[in-house]
Amino acid sequence: MKNQLVTACALMIAVSAASAQTRDYKENEDILKQIQEYNNTKKPSSPPSAEADEDKAKKKKTEVPANDSVLLKTGINMFNSGNYENAAKNFRQIIDDYPQSPYADTARIWIGRIHIKKYEYAKAIEELASVAETSGEYPAARYDTGFCLNAQGDSAAAISCYQTVAYSFPEHELADDALLQSGILFAKTGKGDEAIAAFLLLSSRYKDRETVDDALFCMGKVFESDPELRDIERAREIYRLFLKKSEEGLPHFKDSPLKNKAARELKRIEENHFRIKQ
User: Fold this and answer.
1) CB 67, CB 35: distance < 8 Å
2) 194 Cβ contact partners less than 8 Å away, ≥ 6 residues apart
3) What digits encode the pLDDT tens for the residues 191-224?
4) Coil, helix or strand for 259?
5) Percentage of residues of the chain with pLDDT beyond 70
6) Which of 171, 189, 230, 270 could form a disulfide with 276 if both were Cys (CB 3.0 to 4.6 A apart)?
7) Nearest-angstrom CA–CA distance, 154 and 113
C-alpha cells in the first residue's frame, strides 16, 4: 500500500509541475508532509534489546541438549531394531550439528558398533580411534576396538586393548568384561597362567558383576584343557563349586546360563577320569 501511495503522490507532483504555475511550493510541501505522516504510521519494529538477545541465546543453548539427546535416544532405538542406516544418520547428525555435545563421542561409539554389526571392522576401528583418551567414552572405544582386532585375527592387539580398559579404568562398567575377554584370549593362545590370573582378578574384584560366573567356569576349562596347567582334579573342584554356588542361590550363579554346562562338564570328568557313573 505504501508503494501505491508513493506512486500516486509522485504522479500528483508530476501533474502539478506540468500545470506550471497553478500550484506553489507550499502545496508540494504539503504532499511530502502527507507522505511522511503515512510513513510514520508504519512504525518500524524496534531492534531487539540486549536482554532479548541474551534470553534467545539462553533458550537456544538449553534446547541443544534436548535435540541431541533425542537424536541419540532414537538412534539407539533404531540400532536395537536393526535399522542401522537411519541410526547411523542420527548419530552422524549429532557429530555434525552438535560437535560440542556431550553425546558426540557416544555417537561415535554407536557408529562403530553399526560397522561391527555389518562386519566392517576396519571402518569401526577408524571411527573408534576418533574418540580422545580424555573422553569418558574412551574405555568403551578401546573395548570395541579389541573386539574388532580379535575378529581380524590379531589376538595380541585385542588383548592389549582389553587390558587397557581393565587396568587403566578399573571402575568402568566394561572393566570386568575386558578381563573376561582377555582371559579367554590368553587361554585360546596357550597362555594359561595369564588366563587364570585374569579370571582370578575378575572373581575377586568384581564379585557383584554378572561376569563372575563366566570367570569361574572358564577357570575350570583352563585346568581341564591347558597343556601346561592341566589338572583334572582342580577342574572338577571348580565345577563342583560352581554348582554349589548355584544351589545356594548366589547372585549370577542361581540362574546362570552356564549352570547346565558346568553340570555336564562335571559329569563327563567324573565318568571319564574317576569312573563315577551318574
Assistant:
1) no
2) 182, 183, 186
3) 999 999 999 999 999 999 999 999 999 999 999 9
4) helix
5) 75
6) 270
7) 19
Say how many Å lie between the first and final Cα of the chain, rounded.
102
26-43 tens-digit pLDDT: 444 443 454 345 445 444
Q: Please give the Cα distance from 133 to 171 (Å, whole number).
A: 16
Calpha distance 131→143 (Å, rounded): 12
Amino acid code (one letter) for 151? A
Would you tell me the crossing angle of helices 104-117 and 138-151 to the nearest 10 degrees? 10
Question: Span 89-108, mean pLDDT?
Answer: 96
Long-range CB contact pairs, 190-198, < 8 A, 24+: 190/226, 190/227, 190/228, 192/222, 192/226, 192/227, 192/228, 192/229, 193/228, 193/229, 195/222, 195/226, 196/222, 196/223, 196/229, 198/166
- Grid cell in block for residue 207: 564379585
pLDDT at 45 over 90: no
CA distance 142 to 165: 7
